[in-house]
Amino acid sequence: MQWIRYVKHSCRFDLPLLICSTLVSLANAQTQPSTETESKSAWQAAAAVMQRGPQGIELRDQAKLQLPEGYAYIPTKEASRVMNAMGNQTDSRFIGLIVPLSDASWFVTIDFEPAGYIKDDDAKDWKADELLDNLKEGTEAGNKHRSELGIPPIQVTRWIEPPKYEASTHQLVWSAEARLKNGQDSDPTINYNTYVLGREGYVSMDLVTNSSSIETDKNAAHELLRGIDFNGGKRYADFNSSTDKVAAYGLAALVGGIAAKKLGLLALAGAFILKFAKLIAVAVAAFGAGIVKWFRRDKMETAKGD
User: Fold this and answer.
1) Is 0.85 surpassed by the pTM of this model?
2) Of 75, 78, 208, 267, which residue is least crowded by CB atoms under 10 Å?
């Protein structure tokens, strides 16, 4: 009953009428299973602490993200709970989530990997086809973990954008398609991965969306990438070869072996979200945030059933 009153109270403000009617309908629906309840609660907690742009977001003691208007940042604690509710694991590298304050249907994870200084001289020699094969193999190895979570196995099928490294800005961008391994997948998950190298490691921002909207959504990934700046003394150019730790791997590992596990986990997040689309829509839309497209079909079906 408290949730019903909360939704009706939210609808007194600036939410569109169609969203409000859907929220009330869902709030009055039959009680959901415990997993769905946790998903709803996780998004409620996240929405309550969202930091809306424009404002600066501190990325540990390493860098700062100038979050543009139209985006919201979810801090580590609440973002980790959301990720777990979606079937993803997080660790000490995880910083938080970014979601759109619109009807766009993506989310971005932010991590800092304290790997040390990553030499980027191998970028001139890498071969995209070989890197894709490594990514496929790593994702296949990760299917065992996905099976343990009760989530269907996936497979990497192709580059959306092959790896591209800008030496002047120390930024790496690549994107791959992840389809369900068994059965049809009419709108596969896309991972759009961006990295910025620093003196002590790298910041990664991985946008998760669908194939049908990647051409539009990738603009958000690039806008966020432009907003990252390492702090003084933490920049790639501040490296001191006599004192600083050098990473045990090169730039290619951020596309191949090391990235493979993470791609798999983020890819399943996109698929897992569909299972609890209504609950996410209720928790997020009530605060005016995005991820509306993920529940549009369910919303139409609910309206027909009323």
Assistant:
1) no
2) 75
The residues of the chain scoring below 50 in pLDDT are: 1-33, 263-265, 267-306
Q: List C-alpha distances in Å: 186 to 83, 190, 271, 293.
A: 24, 12, 12, 15
The pair of three-digit structure tokens given for residue 23, joined into one six-digit string = 């929220």
For residue 258, the model assigns a pLDDT of 62
DSSP H helices in the chain: 2-10, 17-27, 34-49, 76-85, 128-141, 143-148, 214-226, 257-275, 277-285, 296-305
What are residue 98's DSSP bridge partners? 73, 108
pLDDT in tens, 141-177: 777 766 776 667 888 889 999 999 999 999 999 998 8
The structural domains of the chain, with segments of one domain joined by +, span 2-31+277-305, 53-275
